[in-house]
Amino acid sequence: MLKKLEDKDLIIYGEDKIIRLTEESKIFCKKLYKRHKYITDVFVRLGIEPGKAENEACLIEHVISDETFEKLKKHFDYNL
Question: Which residues contact 67 (CB under 8 A, 6 or more apart)?
Fold first, then answer.
């Protein structure tokens, strides 16, 4: 997996064996984290147990499109 990320220029895998994020990957990680927190919060507000909400948000955040995520936010009419 590290090789795939390196090939996509999302990480720098140095000779010192330390993995460093590129600026592009930092932006991606922040976007993913924001989605994760938002989806988790929606699930908790819907009455889903927080641990389960967190686990399921983790699965969804990786596959949900930008368009669907924006519509989800619009539907619930709040931003975190």
Answer: none
What does the angle CA 18 – CA 36 – CA 45 come to, to the nearest 5 degrees? 155
pTM for this prediction: 0.76
Nearest one of 57, 12, 4, 55 to 32, comparing CA atoms = 57
- Going from the C-alpha of 22 to that of each of 9, 10, 45, 65, the distances in angstroms are 7, 6, 35, 22
Residue 69 CA to residue 42 CA, distance in Å, equals 12
- pLDDT, one tens digit per residue, over 25-72 is 899 889 999 999 999 999 999 999 999 999 999 999 989 999 999 999
